[in-house]
Batch of 2 targets.
Target 1
Amino acid sequence: MWIVLFIIALALITTIGRWKTYEKAGYPGYHAIIPFLADYVWLKMGDLSGWWAWFFVLFVYYARSIYKAQYYFGPTISMTVGLLLLIVELVLHAVISFRVAKKFDYNYAFGIGLFLFYPIFIMILGFEDHEYRGEKPDYYI
């Protein structure tokens, strides 16, 4: 029971922090609660193109289909592919965290914190008085 409440509280804290961070960057805050749009805006804040969002969508689909691939290719190949995809995803999340931290005029240490302890550091990003130094959108998505 306590674990469920902890997970709900963590999700709520993360959503509030992301909402405030998006508003600081010039995007509407409600983009933080729309699943694929939230990732798209996060990538745009890190100066990555929108095509990376399609990569993440395909990655999630492919990662879920790995379990089905065990029956066709055997567990060794599917586990190897799954591990490689996990490593690629972690590297990309680290790169995005570093880029977003730089856009808010933080150093790489903050980027590491944003990558490892996302709920805490997204709240810092949203509620501290550092301004977004990136390109503000002139239209909403």
Target 2
Amino acid sequence: MKRQSTAQQVHAVGHGRAARAADAGVRCFWNRVMESDPKFLETRITQLSQSIEFLFEERFIVPSLILLYSAIDILGWLARPTGNAKSGRRDFMSWVDTYLLSEANLDVTSLELYGARCGLLHSYSAFSELKEVRALLYHYGSGDFSRVSYETVKEGRAVVVRIEDLQAAFRRGTLRFLSEEEHTADRWKLICSRAANAFYYIPAKIGGT
């Protein structure tokens, strides 16, 4: 292995110190945010949920689903086990099993929802590379959905999901997740510390100082 020069070593040490200082600065800022707004995390996640419903009400159907699956990605990242630097399929599925499907009347599995997520986020499609799961086909409202690829459903290659039911399950799941009673004190502290990386914005005053 090629040895680093003294200059390279000094640069590496300096970069590490800068990174630690930046991280400390973020956490200091986060502490100030939490002191001024203890419900910061709840507010941000509630905004996601409301945005999903707004898009759906305006009939931006696919964008609303994309945002819903992206929100589960975020929640799975927050809830991932201690020591996991990154989140992935297991964390997505774990959050879905624990919070979304536990009290939902949905005929789907967490793996099928993950497949639906991959299909929409990666290729704007109902189908993903997970061939072992059923594809999700969606309908909304109270009308007849028998025209929705019935043969595909009958053959067991797809399942029809009512979007309003999926949204309701997600909304209930987020409320459970945000309830501190669902977590030990250390677990909740860990979730909040991870939220220190959350995007934070300060509204600018328009048209004046």
